[in-house]
Amino acid sequence: MSAVKKAIITDAGFASRYLPITKTIPKAMIPIGAKPVMQLCVEECVEAGIEEIIIVATPNTKSKEIYDDYFHNKAENVKALLDKQGKSDRFEAVEKVLNFPKITVIEQDANLPYGNGSPIVSAKDYVKDEEAFVVLYSDDLILGEGDVKTLIEDYEKAPNAKAVIAAQEMPEEVWHKYGMIALKENGTLSHIVEKPKTPDLAPSNLTSYGRYLLTPEVFDYLVPSNTGLDGELWTVDAITKLAEHGDVVVAHSKGKWITTGDPKNYFLAHLEYVLSHTDYGDDVRKIVEASK
User: Fold this and answer.
1) What is the signed CA dihedral for 272, 274, 280, 284, rounded to 10 degrees?
2) Which 3-state string (H, E, C) describes 72-124?
3) Where are the alpha helices (DSSP H) in 215-262?
4) Which residue, 22, 209, 30, 196, is CA-closest to 116?
5) Which one is the CATH code of 6-290: 3.90.550.10, 3.40.50.1000, 3.90.110.10, 3.30.559.10?
6) In percent, how much of the chain has pLDDT > 70?
7) pLDDT tens-digit readout, 172-198
8) SS3 214
9) Which of 13, 96, 120, 240 is the residue whose CA sits 20 to 30 A from 285?
10) Would the pTM of this model clear 0.70, i.e. be above it?
């Protein structure tokens, strides 16, 4: 049995690049195929044996209410209608969602500074007594074998590690967009260079993104007073501090990382998912080919 039983999935921003739709629904409820982005993240956790998931939603919005409804509403009226129409099989997708392991939805603490570390701090009380826990940013999707499973497997090989972070090799032309990983001589994390302005400033071709396995020691450094660039609370700053006091394992992804962080990349991610994961992918492929 794995010692890693809990995961935090974050979707706590206002997603201004997606307005106006995100004034009404959380960004991670936008669909990829027939499932919202958030469900794909949950499924990645479930496939890795995670037993409890904490979703951190945007404060002072209807996001928490929407996530609670999606994952917990039994929709008995829908089931009754489908049974009456002889279409009970269509409800199987809902039953799968209702049968996920425990999902708790909380709001990010609105008093915390802006930054991708604040949703994790907001969920501290749920994971502070764990040996380790997993964090997923819902902007990031993994096609193929999920990273959560890889993170846990690598942690089990190095149980004294302070953390494990996912990494993927990326081409030089995009290094300036991401956090690029610098390695110690033993192959563990040294630090992360955020968005290097020129290729020569990138310490490797390995990119860090929103898949981490963390130990509660991270909360020694992930505190509201430790803001960094642009006055934000950054998870990677805390992870770099962990690397100064022990090994942070760099886990090479066995899947393919794609991002949904902006409308263009969301569309490309959606297209790639549809082409490879749906029974109508060939139909879409024909339309794309015909448009050339």
Assistant:
1) -50
2) HCCCHHHHHHHHHHCCHHHHHHHHHHHCCCEEEEEECCCCCCCCCCHHHHHCH
3) 235-244
4) 209
5) 3.90.550.10
6) 99
7) 999 998 889 999 999 999 999 888 999
8) strand
9) 96
10) yes
